[in-house]
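Single Protein Entry

Contents — chain, fold
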Amino acid sequence: MGVVNVTPDSFSDGGRWFNEDVAIQHGLDLVREGADIVDVGGESTRPGAARVSLQEELARVVPVIRALDAEGVRVSVDTMRAEVARAAVEAGARLVNDVSGGLADPDMPRAVAATGVPYVVMHWRGHSHDMDSRAVYTDVVTEVREELSKRVDLVLAEGVTEEQIVIDPGLGFAKNADHNWALLAGIPNLAELGFPLLVGASRKRFLGRLLADPDGTPRPFSRSDDATLAVTALAAHAGAWCVRVHEVGPNADAVRVAAAWKRAGANT
């Protein structure tokens, strides 16, 4: 899953794809590099980010989705709003990626159920402005698994089918670095819930902090792509269904390496 942030304030790319035409071209480039899905989002979820209006989010994502769909691209919409999800699917989106797991907008599960498209239910405890204060766990893997399971049950009760559901542990969302590493190591445990698992580690803060300079200065987001590759290969080998990344080509190669490794192991 390649990322197209149609925002002026994304943590990972600083608004490089905020222009509509540039965003469309970037999505096409990601497909050429090997993306199976292009995830288009119009609202930054970086820590501390303020929400944009509904109309602004619609204006950002719908034209990009419509243009990419016209080119045969399999598009996902990254949104927490039911109205945006509906408009995006009408414009051609074939997956809804909701980082709030239906908590930010109670109408979201019903809206997705009506569309019939796959639905990414992410683990989430609150909006960007206060999510860091919610990063409190005794056993993060067990708690995230339990909270995801409860969210899935509630989404199913609203009409979403099991076949539509994809789960995401929500790396970086109300999680500190130790929590993120524990969840990555716990992918097999999370996969036991029985749903495809999406992992989004690309360029996140915990990678920059792991690779910090000797004086403690975190590595810039744009220079953590090599670490992202390592996470991609390990996550794919551990059973992740999909990885959400900013640099598609090298990560697609990493997935192929993981797949070959698993095939070799199955034959020994």
Notes: The CA atoms of residues 2 and 212 lie 26 Å apart.
